[in-house]
């Protein structure tokens, strides 16, 4: 039987071109796999048919929206996951779930290799290939676009020459990736870090400078996970989708970032993530209310490392799994409601409450009913500052 390759198929330029390249260069049959992670846009049946038109012998669509939300987005919320303190790991989170299904498809269809449409400059090549190494080290990995040295201009010309049914043209050369958690855009004029992004780049968010009535939403959390909007219980995929609409209408979640890529270069990335920014803002605020100080301080370092691991393609790593255990334990009691005002591109916390709150009004107030004995402060300061006092005395003595 002819060797088979399972291709991670998005329906875009690179993966459509990859189908023909694999057949021409290796003689293998291509099984195209499209994974629905809430990207919206084109109907996935259209994408499935496009893969067949481009030469795939099999084309499969997997609905992984609930899995993506439950097993990947939810841990990211608990970990306050932001790469470089700004990017909510939109593409980074979706790659490991896609890898999981690529490996399953390879076993189902008897394929000996997996392929992706990544270039040699991006992070996704690492995420796909290291993920496959962790889950199925016996499988080979092909990277047609990278290994053929095909530039984006050449890929567009290749598609035009063969009449491939894709949407990207030389006049609209943005590279787009999107899912339930947000949307990314790069290439074209966006490669100039001085150029302001054209408004036609944005899809998930309205222009934040346009005047409109503010929106206010109350987000309910249980053990660090969002479970309701304005008192309405919602599954996570639906909750994120609604927040994408509401926060996006207020221009929330636009990010213009000069990003440090894993491969060692800086790139200019445009992100739209209205729900992600809103939820992460609310979750972090609720942690401030419910986490003990030392636990909160330590968790901030864990959160940063968690985000770096996922960005760097190490979802399937023992450290990420171990950090998850810590984050899950720390998230117990991170329950309550956070009120967020959405306006002018900003998600602003305007109120929070929790049965597990560590905020004690009787201790915090300066008014009548104050139960904090300020006389205790003097002795506390003396003991707290004693090491500094002893050190300073030594320095003065030796400086003579």
From TrEMBL:
The keyword NADP does not apply. L-aspartate binds at residues 119, 123-124. Pathway: Amino-acid biosynthesis; L-arginine biosynthesis; L-arginine from L-ornithine and carbamoyl phosphate: step 2/3. Coiled coil: none annotated. It comes from the Bacteria. Residues 174-391 form the Arginosuccinate synthase C-terminal domain. One of its GO terms (biological process) is urea cycle. Pfam families: Arginosuc_syn_C, Arginosuc_synth. It is an enzyme of class 6 (ligase). It catalyses: L-citrulline + L-aspartate + ATP = 2-(N(omega)-L-arginino)succinate + AMP + diphosphate + H(+). Residues 4-165 form the Arginosuccinate synthase-like N-terminal domain. Its EC number is 6.3.4.5. ATP binds at residues 8-16, 117. GO terms for cellular component: cytoplasm. It is found in: Cytoplasm. Homotetramer. Belongs to the argininosuccinate synthase family. Type 1 subfamily. This is Argininosuccinate synthase. It comes from Candidatus Protofrankia datiscae.
